[in-house]
Fold these 2 entries.
Entry 1:
Amino acid sequence: MKSRKKIDIKTKNLSVIKFAGDSGDGIQLIGSQFANATAISGNDLSTLPDYPAEIRAPSGSLGGVSGFQIAFGDDSVTTPGNKPDVLVVMNPAALAVNLKNLDKGSIIIVNSDAFTEDAIKKAGYEKNPIEDGALSNYRVLAVPANSMVEITLKDSKLTKSQILKTKNFFMLGVMYWMYDLPIENTVKWIENKFKKTPELIEANKKVLYAGYNYAENTEVFDAKFKIEKGKLSSGKYKNITGNEAAAYALIAASKKLGRKLFYGSYPITPASEILQTLSKYRAKDIVVFQAEDEIAAICSAIGASFAGCMSATGTSGPGFSLKSEALGLAVITELPLVIVDVQRGGPSTGLPTKTEQSDLFQSLFGRHGDCPLAVLAARSPADCFDTVYEASRIAVKYMTPVVVLTSSYLANGSEPFKIPKQSELRNFEMTKLPEPDKFQPYIRDAQTLSRPWAYAGLKGYEHRIGGLEKSGETGNISYDPDNHQRMTELRRNKILNIANEIPPTFVNGNKSGDLLILTWGSTYGAVNSAVEIVRKNGIAISSAHLKYLNPLPTDLGEILKRFKKVLIAEENDGQFSFIIKSRYLIETISLNKVKGQPLNSDEIVQFINDNAR
Amino acid sequence: MANKLIAKDFSSNLPVKWCPGCGNFGILTIIQRTMANLNLPHEKYAVISGIGCSSRFPYYVNTYGFHSIHGRAPAIATGIKLSNPELLVWVITGDGDGLSIGGNHMIHAIRRNIGLKIVLFNNRIYALTKGQTSPTTLFGSKTKTAPIGSIDYPFNPANFAVSLGCGFVARGFDNDLNFSSEIMLESARHDGTSFVEIMQKCVVFTDKEFDQYKNSETKEDFTVKIENGKPMIFGKNKNKAVVIKDLKTEIIEFDPAKAPSDLTIYDSSNLNMAFLVSSLVSPLPYGIFYKAEKKSYEDLYYEQAGDNNKFENIEDIFQNLELYEIK
């Protein structure tokens, strides 16, 4: 018997791992399994799935590489990290795509069996990079995963292609060993997933353990990493994606409000998971409707809102465009409605699976007429819950559509989410419904300017609403010129009133000084990391992050005045800069990234060093 | 509610802004009368419309009403009906609103068999925008956008609905208050989507076109009344009939004293017959073309939903998920 090998255990505070392979290799699956294992171990984490638009892009091609990056650590983790410490690649194309984003000395774990002559050529290499010294700056651990699963399953009745398909679990087993993570959760997942085909349960479990044991017993694996439990507050958690969080927030809002939920939506990447998640919860009081198109999706939700439901729709950029006519109707009729826009690269079909923040203008201005509505943006996957919940609350209180901007990055990325308690969630408020004899559909609360929500079916409150301009209280059609002026101003002021309840803007760092970095939405994590790094380098920098984009917080103008320079970092061609410049008449410095990938902290640090000091 | 409701009880008392002589007045009466006959309380009705002359309708009925945007009424109404199936939801639309800009919503509402009572006012013209070709404008008709004559092949709305397998399809005339009210009442009582096309003259643009169907001199020869279990006899002298031979419709003439014994008897449960007969243009058939029992979308939805996932509170939502605890 072989003597036990010596294993070096290194404790780390943070680790970044990237899994990459062909889009059919099951990368997203092992990535999310690994993420769940780190979560269960008590780490904070952040993930970034990155996959091609095609379901099965040409096999072995550079364009077909699917990736899943995760950062996990013993302290707060707000981004999926910049460069991986460990890169796991299932084929040469995945290596070619990811190598440029790797620091020297990083670990690369390769499925060496996938480095066939043909696959190497497809990836653009002339010779096998594992063997020709191209990777000499890295620590390469070659794992013959195909052969290993074939040996492991040599007695199995599965076909050869079924056997080879399990290789992702082999690699996952290797990684569980390397990071000393619990394997049981994935075993449970396999048992549940394949419960109708026991052979597959058997095979995948065997392969998972085989990978683990392979790493345990092979000399080349001589180091393990240990990341201590994080500092998350005690409670029940789920590792949640932004789309799941948005879906749960809508259910939570309807429960707290005590009304049915209606979600009308049409499939669109990357928002479909909201519709799919809610579809699992279809019930008498959770009505989920897959509409025939984007227009019908929002219109059905407007109808349900008229009928008294907590109503919402979800989409991405092109679908949002199709909804804009109906948004005008929701604004003029003053019906509550939540629209979740999971932003992706545009215009048109653009980069459908990649992230961007380029629907800001569309959400603020993309409608006919003077058509104000509230716009909020989420800053992290778990924050999609809070933001969608808050949007629901504002929609009902102010009887208005509210747009929530998330992004592909937040929608597919995940992080630990602490399960909320109903009692902790903020209460819904509504304009009081008067007695039927005193009722008019558009009488208003003097303070909020909002109207009561008398919904179809309520006895004694029968009334008619519509898209024609109406007189302010009776709701009767009015073409009176002065009335239209008054109503336009009223709709504007009603939205501006929301600013009265926006909490004071938090300025991280000095409250005045040379440089403020102002951001919104999904750049939050990267900017926070960058600010820490820049401060360590001795530069004074403050940061502020906005959730409320319309109306803007009332204190923002004052804050901006206290800084000599304002830097705005965003994943579009300068949309928020445009808003801030025109609204506050100040100059801004813009860091704009439109590569379909989230801004990362290295890029922000670099930009600050080059441009903003 | 001791007294039985009458049509007037459903008037909103707002000034009606259609042109004098417009066929819409008749349809308003037909629907108000139907509402009274159904004898449901006012709050149980929701009348949803799109854009066009017809779509002003909800303002004139004192129930819940929503005058929405062009073509979208079926989609908005779907949200209302699906979220509250207890409401009787009418969709008031026109040939342009329902079959052109809103065509997609129309076909999908019918496909799902959601319980909407769709009433399509067919005046064969865009009247509110003052005289452009509509999807039911007759081939060759001159309009402001077809000054030499329309080269668009028109839709036949009733035939369109039959071809989609709509569970209730009928056609009536705006001036035929009694028969159209009968059709409307049956439509309202039907479970699932019902589609009623009402031929509606536009006094400004298509007045003459409808004369043949309405003048007592000509109407018997230019229309044929369809009734379940009866032959399709028409003509001022009751000397003609629509019959089906070799899967085609034919018009035969006969001596009314010796009507043939083998005339085709109309069967409103026969979709194929409904398709053949509703495709006729002259004589223009009216009545109930098709009627079939088919479970509605809302019934299927709530049956499927059952009592599953009954959450008392927010914590319950998460109870079946893979959670982990941090201590």
Entry 2:
Amino acid sequence: MTCEETRKNLPLFLYGELSFDEEELVEVHMDECAACRAALAREKAMFGALDEAEMIPAAGALEESRMELRRRLAHSQNPIRRSSWWDKVREGFTINFHFAPGIAQVAGAAAMLVLGFVTARMAPNSLLGNFRTASVMDNPATSRVRYVEPTSPGRVQIVVDETHQRVLSGSLDDQSIQRLLLTAAKDPSDAGLRVESVDLLKNNSQSAEIRKALVYALEHDPNAGVRLKALDGLKQFAEDPDTRQALTSVLLKDDNPGVRTQVIDLLVQRQHNDAMVGVLQELMEKEDNSYIRMRCQKVLQEMNASVETY
Amino acid sequence: MDEAELIRAAQQGDQRAFEQLVRLYDQSVLRLATNLLRSPEEANDIYQEAFLRVFKNLHTFRFDCSFHTWLYRIVSNLCLDALRKRKVRREESSLVETSEGVLDRMDTVEERRADGNPERQLESQELKSRIQEVLGGLTPRERAVFEMRHYQGMRLRTIGEVMGTSEEAAKNCLFRATQKMRAALGDFV
């Protein structure tokens, strides 16, 4: 490869976007050419400057955008909306009003009157009023009737489970905040919450407890977004034996090629130890992602190990 | 619920599932739009429009490509349109006239580096404006490819899918963008 070709390829080389063969040619040329090594150093400096110029949305901007979206969605007609029995009743009335406004309005009004009369006659008093609402009226975020039990004639006892919301704010270094984030990071019902919690926790990965939670998320979270965030937090601990073991296991079993790609980059970025040979050979047997295969192949060749097991 | 389950639930009208789906990607969408347009207001407009379009068209998503690619296709098209309109209007400057004088809209955007050293701040400021200038000189397509590769870390193959072109075309685009930047920033770094 000539100097001109090498320099032309430098950005793609730094982005890891060259083919295995092209990358080899660039590296071979670089070993022999001081001028191109200097050009590479300049290219890296430019990349660094561009990194620094990245614009991060201001704090709170994301939350404001989310709130606005929530408002706009509330006013937007859901294209596929589950219709409840009440929607169906309402839709029925709407159609009638549309086709025959005069008669249907009278019929609709009469139907509502009958419905109200029947409800007042048939429904127990407890549903229409005169029930103790103190605990329910405390504005819980969610409430659910756990069970109902008739007590005396005409009366009933209802047990309601309630969830109350509280707003807590504090420093990310605060242990109680961290504990809440650690709990949220494992919430099985909300992947978005887990992504955000892990994203916040990853900045405090010096803490052994948080690191443990990140390793757990990386190995067990069903959502690839969460696993990638956890991986991000573990990058600086790639040489730590426990983290390395977790990374190795993830490399062999994670079904997301994006996660595996980042893991392989992390595992092979520094010194290669002999224990890696077996792992990489095992990976080569089953890996179908060309980038990961290429990285494996390259490291194995650098370690003078065979690409396959025999 | 994993992503595919969230999409299916949202397609059935589950609002909570849709919100969770939004939360999986909205941070990077806002970041991409902020970087591409270098205007917080326009970035928010893109964010709103993109997710409203997703909401309205999610029932047509058939898992032919990844949801990420589908979403980014919407976002990049919106950003490209905004950049093209801006080129026409020649509104690249982030300065706006207000009743209180001229304000820089980018003051409301956080920079990566916060350094107390005044000399470094000045250098950084100069470099920032030079980079702004170079980015403004790129074609909308070059800029989008560069942003997605450099700041979002997306592979060229995925960028090609998002932009509706080949990996090779995305590579050429990135190549042209970095060449222009090298020419403009060479004496700075």
